[in-house]
Amino acid sequence: MSKADHSDRARFLARFALLAAAAAVLVVLVSLVETGPLIILQGLAGLAVCAVGAWWFLAHRGVVRVLGGALAVGAPMAVLALFFKGGLWFTAPAGVALWTGALGCARGALRADRRPDPPAAVRPGRPPRRPVLIMNPASGGGKVARFGLVERAEELGARVLLLTPGTHTDVEELARKAVAEGADLLGVAGGDGTQAMVAAVAAEHDLPFLVISAGTRNHLAMDLGLDRSDPSRCLDALTDGVELRMDLGDVAGRAFVNTVSFGVYAAIVQRPEYRDAKAGTALDALPDLLSGGAGERLDALADGRPVAGQQALLVSNNPYSAADPLDVGRRPRLDGGELGVLGIRVDGAAQAADLAVRGALSPALTMLTSRRVEVRAAAGADSDAGAGAGADADPASIPVAVDGEALTLPTPVVCTLRPRALRVLVPRDRPGAAAQVPELNWRRIATLALDRPGPGARS
């Protein structure tokens, strides 16, 4: 697309975004004239009550949990009933639709104006001569067999090492042996935890690494832009690939490609029954973990900045998107050289309601970036390993989930990054690759709509 086409598209989308936003505000003002401001306050109160109900449902058992579930479901329904009764049966959905359209067009305008590079600069990849791919037949509910990955890989000249379901295999040792036997590429068809272990070996030997989206969630594959619906397309990189560099996380000497979780989630993952009954195990464990019975609070230092008393802490290999409200859950880039840090501290129903209403502005939520994160159990917290220890000793260990794999590590647990340490070979055509989006800035949107060049615009 030419520069002029980009400018025309950005201008059109920016103008439409402003019109849709203005229409959404107008709809709200008309509604207020007809019904008064009380209806808006009722909507906010309903949101708060819903959050309180959700907190009671998660943090309690028995009658309180039943009551919380009823509130969490009933409050939104009550608000909708009030809106219909107040004559907002049309204006409320119209306002939401207009605002959603405004955000979508604003995002499109910024993308068209910025014309960003891919998440990481790519260069032509040399087809490997002796690729070795490690495949887990049980991963992703049997995707290896369902998509014929072994046959397809062997047709392309790769050597396939199949893991045996139900038995423990030292995947890192398997990868090291493959390198010793002459492998010039390592790849994995499996979950992100297995991806991380083999990626560490590939980075150690400066070999290209191939991600095959055969896991359950495939977070790394998503952020690399790979096709998650058909993992066989990832194998196209063996013959028509490009290479990019990405950061590799390190937690206590162990590599991670996505996230390290501490606190509530990590404690749940530790339970042996979690793999077979995730939802039931979580609901059974959460009351103890959230109410302080079995769970520990966490203290962290992020580049020296204290993050105290957190119930849950997530450290990610590059931060997840916060700039784009329509693209939460993805990392815009994997080579930024910084860890993302997300902490949650909710001490009761009131804070849960505050978090629901204020979102990222709530003091219950901490979001920042850092190059080094140090995590330990909060001061004064009990721990299995720390009981009875000397006053100067800190032998405590805490549960940690590394790319979804359950571990227990001695504190302090230190997370760092190895910038651009991993060479990743990806197909030239990546259907999921998304352009980066700068922070949503309505002043910039207005500048685009009026066709005035703004600061930072590309020539």
Characterise this structure.
The structure is a single chain. With 459 residues, the chain is an alpha+beta fold. 39% of the residues lie in helices and 22% in strands. The chain is built from 13 helices and 17 strands. Strands 1, 2, 3, 4, 5, 6, 7, 9, 10, 14 and 17 form an 11-stranded mixed β-sheet that branches. Strands 13-12-11-8-15-16 form a 6-stranded antiparallel β-sheet. Strand 9 and strand 10 form a beta hairpin. Helix 2 runs antiparallel to helix 3 (62-85), helix 2 (38-59) packs across helix 12 and helix 7 (171-180) runs parallel beside helix 8. The two termini are 15 Å apart. Mean pLDDT is 79; it is low at 323-327, 382-395 and 454-459.
Biggest sheet, open or closed, and with what strands and sense?
11 strands, mixed
Based on the structure, what is the oligomeric state of the protein chains? single chain
Question: SSE string, helix = H, strand = E?
Answer: HHHHEEHHEHEHEHEEEHHEEEEHEEEEEH
Give the number of helices. Answer: 13
Total number of beta strands:
17
Structural class: alpha+beta
In summary, what is this structure?
The chain has helices at residues 3-35, 38-59, 62-85, 91-114, 143-146, 149-155, 171-180, 192-204, 219-223, 264-269, 278-291, 349-358, 442-449; strands at 122-124, 131-135, 159-162, 185-189, 208-212, 241-251, 254-256, 259-263, 298-302, 305-310, 312-317, 339-344, 365-370, 372-377, 397-402, 405-410, 413-427.
